[in-house]
Amino acid sequence: MRETVWVRVSDRGQAGQRPASTQTQSGQRKIVSMPVEVSPETALAVLKARQLSDIPWLIHGFSTRRGGFSHVYGGGALNLGFTRHDSRSAVEQNRFLFLRKLGAVTRKKPWPLVTLRQIHSDLIHCIDSPPEHQLTGDGLITCMPEILLAVQTADCLPLILVDLKRRAAGVFHAGWRGTLKRIAEKGVGEMRRCFSSEPRHIRAAIGPGIHSCCYEVGAGVREKFESQFAYAADLFREVKESDPIREKYPLLFLSARPPGHGELPHRIFLDLVEANRRQLIDAGVFAKNITASELCTACRPDLLFSHRAEKGTTGRMMGVAGIRKKR
User: Fold this and answer.
1) What distance in Å separates the CA atoms of residue 136 and residue 155, rounded to the nearest whole number?
2) What range does the domain containing 139 cover?
3) How far apart are CA 195 and CA 198, in angstroms?
4) CATH code, 31
5) Residues 154 and 262 in one domain
6) Which of 169, 186, 205, 297 could lock onto 306 through a cystine, CB 3.0 to 4.6 A?
């Protein structure tokens, strides 16, 4: 018996806020949802994008931290990465459980799972057969059936691109460095180069990651984005530090420098979701074909792994995509 829980998802959104909507080419606002399939027996949850769920030949999903065999990150955690804290056997069991939940098991044998040694790059590999050795990079694309492509995340964004006409799919890992290197935009370009994909036929899903509510960065990161993107100002917001004692007793904080008081620092927050959405649009993907989870990993460590919220001691989730054989 399975229960389906619906979680609000928008093209832009932050945990705890009402999802923002996206204006389509017709001028209408569109909000979409992402279901969480929960199995009461295992408590294993899988996030799926509604725009991708109606594609009959596609298997896709974003894992959560619930319903696995790992105990180092809390009881029953679904850690899918070979981290230094967890045992290999627990991770292998978690991976099989996850693939079975997705339906990526044929005749009791799981599909080959292709992962990467991720380095926050713009390197993208086209997969026509399971590689003999682990590849290095941050993107995978394929048109071959029964191969499951995966990227691992714990705050960075997992992206899935699907070409409806060419029966091709790709997964990408986008932190701020990969986003700065335009991995989402280059992912569309690589699908065009390898499969003759047309952006208008591509649907995109951005999975759970850290949102602008929690993603504080330094001034140097903002400067790097400003040097690359004309719309960089739209990707950052500043919050001025507040100090109740300073406000109540301003004379205690007088400075010799004019105008007499030292300025409190500003905190800078990056909207990584919007940055990748804009790249996809610039690459030709229609805004109406892009969905993004509103779940922030740093806000929801109960459901998701977060490297930042858990101070580096955490597991890894996966964003995956694979193609079924034609019948």
Assistant:
1) 19
2) 3-209+289-323
3) 9
4) 3.60.140.10
5) no
6) 297
